[in-house]
Design brief:
Elements: H1 4-60, H2 68-73, E1 86-92, H3 103-113, E2 125-133, H4 135-153, H5 171-180, E3 195-201, H6 206-212, E4 229-231, H7 235-242, E5 260-267, E6 272-274, H8 277-280, E7 308-313, E8 332-337, E9 343-352
Parallel strand pairs: 6-7
Antiparallel strand pairs: 1-2, 2-9, 3-5, 4-8, 5-9, 7-8
Helix pairs in contact: 1-3
């Protein structure tokens, strides 16, 4: 009998330990999940902070012509083979904190980080940024901007459309105000504005776009909001196209590093027509805007005298979102440009799938 007690005590202790182990398992998993959630929250907060810095940079920072030598010689440009453009590596993920970073690299990285749904954190991970220098395209773009500026300054009716027609509910005015908030501060222009837009493409098309510019590919898709070159100020939206996420049976593939690419362009929208539900759909039940052209049908041009269309869209059906005048925030936006000369490829932004 006496020798049974230690056994009972030992068994009793073992049972308590087992119970502790059983309790510790779920508790440890809960703590791990909590730490992961905190880390995600910190990451999202950091990305939104970068987006706020991008807005600050966009609203307050610009460069003068005196900085041309810095722009010309600040980074090392290289040319591969017979390419008509030069490339400079501006930023790579994981680079040393002390590595110098250009002002524009900071801007485009921050715009990427805050370019998700409704201006939230972008769910695609940016890996590196390249600057593109194509002297021929740059000359054509600058000439286009100057010509559009001169035409507006002339005061001619052909270049100064007084209104968009009916805007009884004020939706178009609210949309235009939303677009204007994305413009860069440029005192050298009084009648034109520039902004950075994103265009998702297949990895194999990036060199051609940087060589010859963006093209109107209406033979593939006649356009949901008019015939032209489509881009967006929402980096995540462009990334979803580039990765093939929004293209059924997509043939988009990654490069050898497992990356997709988005082309970031400087753009001049000129006279912009904002599309709204009430004015640009044939009825409340209409599935598409009056500018939509089904595959095989002739593409519909942009509104006469306007150089671009601006659209706020939802992430479910990618149709126009109504209510911007009432502070409704659309998931993404789209800008349709009339001519390729209104955009210049400026950066290649390589990213990995979400």
């Amino acid at each position: 009998m006496p020798n049974h007690e230690p056994e009972a005590t030992e068994h009793h202790h073992t049972t308590k330990k087992q119970k502790h182990d059983v309790d510790a398992g779920p508790l440890a998993e809960a703590r791990k999940a909590h730490r992961a959630a905190e880390e995600r929250a910190r990451s999202a907060e950091a990305q939104l902070a970068e987006a706020r810095r991008a807005t600050d940079l966009r609203q307050r920072c610009t460069l003068s012509a005196a900085s041309l030598p810095l722009a010309q010689f600040g980074v090392r440009l290289t040319r591969t083979g017979g390419q008509s453009f030069e490339v400079a590596q501006l930023w790579t993920h994981g680079q040393a904190a002390a590595t110098p970073i250009t002002l524009d690299a900071e801007l485009v990285r921050n715009l990427w980080s805050g370019g998700g749904v409704r201006g939230r954190a972008n769910r695609f991970a940016l890996r590196r940024v390249e600057a593109i220098n194509n002297a021929e395209l740059a000359a054509a773009f600058c000439t286009k901007v100057r010509n559009m500026e001169t035409q507006r300054q002339s005061g001619g009716v052909a270049f100064n459309r007084p209104d968009w027609g009916a805007d009884r509910d004020g939706e178009k005015a609210a949309l235009l105000a939303q677009l204007k908030a994305k413009f860069l501060p440029l005192d050298g222009l009084t009648h034109q504005n520039l902004l950075l837009v994103f265009h998702g493409c297949a990895i194999g098309d990036a060199d051609l776009i940087c060589s010859t510019g963006l093209a109107n590919v209406a033979y593939r898709d006649n356009g949901w909001f008019g015939q032209g070159i489509y881009a967006t100020s929402s980096a995540e939206y462009a990334a979803r196209y580039a990765s093939g996420e929004l293209k059924p049976n997509s043939t988009h593939r990654t490069n050898a590093q497992g990356e997709y690419v988005v082309i970031a362009c400087w753009a001049v929208p000129g006279m912009c027509y904002p599309l709204s539900r009430k004015a640009d759909y044939t009825g409340a039940a209409a599935a598409h805007s009056k500018f939509y052209a089904a595959p095989g049908r002739q593409a519909k041009p942009l509104v006469n005298q306007f150089q671009s269309h601006y659209v706020a869209v939802g992430a479910n059906d990618f149709e126009i979102v109504d209510g911007v005048r009432n502070k409704v925030v659309a998931d993404y936006d789209e800008i349709v440009f009339r001519e390729s000369a209104q955009l210049i490829p400026a950066y290649r932004m390589y990213f990995k799938a979400a």
